[in-house]
Fold this protein.
Amino acid sequence: MAIDTTRWVASTLQEFDAEMTYVLNQTNIIGSVTGTNTLKFSSSALMTKLSSLSTGMTFQFIVQHTNTTVATITINNLSTAYNIYYDTPTGSVITSGNELVAGATCILQYDAALNNNAGGFHIITPNKLVTDVGEADLSRINRFRNGTFDTWQRGTPVTVAAAAPKYTSDGWIVQSSLSAVTVSQVAGRQLTRNALQIFGAASTSDVFIKQRLESWLSSNFAQQTITVQGWMYNGTGAAFNPTLMINYASVVDTWTTSISVVSTALSSCTNAAWTQLGYTFIAPQSIANGLEFIMDIGNAINAAGTYIQLAEFDIRNTPGYPVNVLPPIFSTPDNIIYPHAWILNQRYLPGINTTPVTRSMGGPLATVVAITPSTATAIINFSSQAMIAPTSIATVGAPATFLLTDLSNTSVTTLTGISFQSASQLGATLALTTPAATLTANKMYTLGINVSTSAIVFLGTEL
């Protein structure tokens, strides 16, 4: 960078110091650092004469050790340890681990406004070991579907009967032995709006939650270093160790039988606290057939009032991470933004009016053709191509919460029945019934709702 030398007109030592500060604001100060999370920056003898920092000063060095938690840095002879931040489209975020990578060149820029005007440093160079959505290497994005637990197309809460595995929040299967559990959407921990809660009961035993990744999502993991991580809140009254299991499908995307890759106890979860859990492993080539993640909490919620919560789940490629160690290196979860995640969820569970983003009183949700004065056919176009053609439906809300309007948007009648008729990967038809003599045969109508939470989901497409 060219330096403006026209300012070099100092006639006193005080003025010279001011001019030197100006120059330092226009060029990188090169030095070295020691430390892993608490960094000490040292430069030439000339630079140690700095009496203060000003916004815009930049410092360049080679990172010696990858940080494992919040990173701070002290500059030369100055006494203050400043937090280091990385920038995102929504603002600066304090480092938490793996943002400064050993062996990489790092440039930090001082900003007096950071940390509530206490000052801090921005990372100017892209040093993060695990890339986020929007960065160049899209092979390392989170492969979990709905790892934020934002999408609940079946509604919430969901009761899971004993010994009857059931989908709850989109993509997530819950199973319990001996007694039923209740699965609900609750407030998130910190980095997401929502979390998943499993509420136990007397005699509850061997509760687990799992997700299966379709082969097109898991094939990128073959023979790669993979890290799975997430947070668990323990509301059981006592500490316990959950068990992580990773399997792959024996036949591509067919889960009749599966082969174990990982089965290991994770870190102990302290009662009445959030614990970050995770594990790093090398996936075999056959993981390309499809991956199954299972978190088993055993009999931890075996009494009335006991529960656990899950939040911020993430699984992705993490090249260079040490494998088979507890705890692993953690990174900031890659939380896919809600509209994009919802489109992916529609591949496995097509639905209409199944998200707060699209819910609205009235409609239209589908085009309807009257067959007789009390029967009609609804024509549904899916927003995403389904994995396979659905085979049935489930409704959230009674038929009377759905209504038909004419093309002038005038309400005509509510429904008395909704049933599955046919489907392809692109859409479906539903058979509708109404009170007698409420429709005109061969006339067009639109399907809407009169209760905002009512919805229809198409079943038979999930793994």
